[in-house]
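Consider today's protein:

***
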Amino acid sequence: MAEAVATTGLFLNFIAVIAVVVCLSNWASHGALTALSGAVAAVSFAASIACFRAQADEQEPEVAVS
């Protein structure tokens, strides 16, 4: 399960980077598109951090070495 959460966080991080690029490229021309892509970037980045935090909090079972 930890791999699925980490992979989701990675995809959300990619989405955030793409949304930041779209936001910066439309900075001077379209106000609504800039605001929307900025909001998508912020939400997806926050969600990716939450996914990485959830993955870090999961405890893997300890394997006894004998």
About this structure: The helical segments are 2-25, 31-57. The mean pLDDT is 88. The longest helix spans residues 31-57. The radius of gyration is 17 Å.
